[in-house]
Design brief:
By secondary structure, this protein is an all-alpha fold. The protein is 76% helix and 3% strand. It has helices spanning 2-24, 37-43, 51-62, 66-81, 84-93, 100-121, 128-155; strands at residues 45-46, 126-127. The longest helix is centred in the last third of the chain and has 28 residues, at 128-155.
Length: 156
């Protein structure tokens, strides 16, 4: 049973990684943007913390456009929700990542690498707020794992 659980976890993790790579990078392949590379780098990069988050919250508070509100919700909730599994699966697969500081540091390194690839390949945008929201998702996943683990331990 233990081996089956491990195979299932690795399979889920592999599928999750493949889906995330497709969503974050590969689905944008072939979409070229006209313009000079340096100018495109500038427009595809936000290094000011909370700028994007604030703009989405402003849209939610002030916009009457359902399309704009939906766009803001999808971006905020999506950047959090898509990374919840990264707070659950790695700690289950690697015991060293069960401690929150180590998990957050590892997740931050992976997310920063993806953001850098998005920036330099122009396959998406590099946004420090994505990193913050993604880490919030990892933290939420880790918290849910802790709650589930404590509940399971109390039942035994």
């Amino acid at each position: 049973m233990r081996r089956l659980r491990r195979v299932l976890l690795w399979t889920l993790f592999g599928l999750y990684c493949a889906l995330m790579l497709w969503l974050l990078l590969f689905r944008r392949l072939g979409r070229t943007m006209p313009g000079e590379y340096a100018a495109l780098l500038h427009t595809n990069c936000n290094l000011t913390p909370l700028r994007t988050i604030r703009s989405y919250l402003l849209v939610l508070r002030r916009s009457s456009s359902p399309t704009m509100r939906r766009y803001a919700v999808v971006n905020l909730a999506g950047n959090i929700g898509m990374f919840v599994p990264l707070g659950v699966l790695p700690p289950l697969l690697w015991p060293r990542l069960r401690r929150l500081p180590r998990l957050l540091l590892s997740a931050a390194a992976v997310i920063a690498a993806v953001e850098a690839v998005q920036l330099f390949t122009l396959l998406g945008s590099c946004d420090v707020d994505d990193l913050l929201l993604n880490l919030l998702g990892v933290l939420l996943g880790w918290g849910l794992l802790q709650l589930f683990s404590r509940g399971r331990d109390a039942a035994n």
